[in-house]
Amino acid sequence: MRRLTTAFFPILILPLLVLLAPIGPARADEVLFLNGDRLSGKIVKASGGKLTIKTEGAGDVTVDMSKVKTFSTDAPVEVGIKEQPPVSADVGPGPDRHVQTAPAPGAPPQPVAIADISAINSPPAWTGSFSLNGLLTTGNSATEQLGFRGALSKRWPHDRLTFGAEYSFGRQEDPSTREKSTTIDYAMALAKYDHFFTGKFYGYVGTKAERDKVAQLEVRVAPGAGVGYQWFERPTFNLSNELGLVWVYENYKNTGSSEFFGPRFAYAVDWTPVQPLKLFHKLEYIPSFEDFGGDYLLNIDAGARLSMWKGLFAELRYEFRYDATPAVGRNRTDQRYILGAGWAF
Predict the structure, then answer these.
(1) Cα separation of 163 and 128, whole Å?
(2) In degrees, to the nearest 5, what angle opens at C-alpha 163 toward C-alphas 157 and 167?
(3) What are the tens digits of pLDDT across the range 150-188?
(4) Long-range contacts, stretch 238-245, CB < 8 angstroms, 24+ apart
């Protein structure tokens, strides 16, 4: 019996070893570069034109996607193509500067340009900027001015939140009487929510509040809602139009309060023709239904931003504010030329 057991032991154990042994080498994500190099590991994420892959020997390695010929994954990843919402899909190797993946849920894999991939496994992040500007003079003229401006936004596949705030204060001293007078005391805050029904068409609700002591404007609030169309939404070019309805309430220091209801027309565009220069322009027109040509607000922002180092930037901004029915004795137009510096993230 012992001989029989010993003779059959290799026969019994061999199938078990075959089942336990790996059938082939373990798969891994792979990146093929234009120069012929290869990198294997696990693709962690891609955003801002950078691809991060976790390797066994070197840890996390970040590479420029412009140098990637093609790449592949061994499991589905969240792929964002242009301004479209991310899609969970496998990624396979494709022709030069392309991969094979599904551009939409349920769609068959097809070649997609690497340049059109906006993100991989990148959760939405807050983006924004903060800037300061100031002016100080002494001697024949004594002037003090300080300004602050901030913007914050977050973009999900179907939603977008935007917040903004601005405050400027300045005063000047008369060299003869030594009396100081306020030259600017302006504050603004806004909040806006967008919901995208399609990749480009969205609805929005938002509100804006302003105060301008020099213009004798104690408060202006303008809540509203409407629809918009995002023609382009890319790292180097963005363009949108909006059409909605808004209620405007104003309270002036000496003339009391007033209100009107009307449409809102707006557009916003920013363009990065070359790094590190960014140009931007916004326009908002709000007339009253009761007096379309005689009672309206017009706001224009335009400027240029020059990126310097690690998010730091210098900015030249032009602001134009027009109120067709200002406080008694005040001008309809306010213009500001602002040179500042800040940090973007």
Answers:
(1) 9
(2) 160
(3) 999 998 878 999 999 999 999 998 877 888 889 899 999
(4) 238/268, 238/269, 238/270, 239/267, 239/268, 239/269, 240/267, 240/268, 240/269, 241/266, 241/267, 242/204, 242/266, 242/267, 244/204
Chain Cα centroid distance, residue 54: 27
Q: Look at phi and psi of residue 260 and say left if phi exceeds 0, alpha if psi is from -120 to 50, else beta.
A: beta
Residue 212 placed within a domain: yes
**Tokens 């190797």 label which residue?**
93
Domain match, 111 and 156 both: no
Determine if residue 10 is left, alpha or beta; phi over 0 gives left, psi from -120 to 50 gives alpha, anything else beta.
Answer: alpha
Q: Which domain holds residue 263?
A: 126-344
Find residue 262's DSSP bridge partners. Answer: 246
- The Cβ-side half-sphere exposure at 271, using a 13 Å CA radius, reads 6
Whole-number Å distance between alpha carbons of 90 and 102: 8
CATH code at 171? 2.40.160.40
Residue that terminates a domain, selected from 81, 96, 120: 120
Q: How many domains does the chain contain in total?
A: 2
The two structure tokens encoding residue 159: 């939603």
Q: Express each pLDDT in 26-39 by its tens digit.
A: 568 999 999 999 99
Strand (E) or helix (H) holding 8: helix 2-20
Q: Are residues 330 and 183 in the same domain?
A: yes
| 72 pLDDT more than 80 | yes
Measure Cα distances from 135 to 129, 141, 168, 204 in Å.
21, 12, 11, 37
**pTM of the entire structure?**
0.72
| Closest C-alpha among 336, 334, 304 to residue 318 | 336
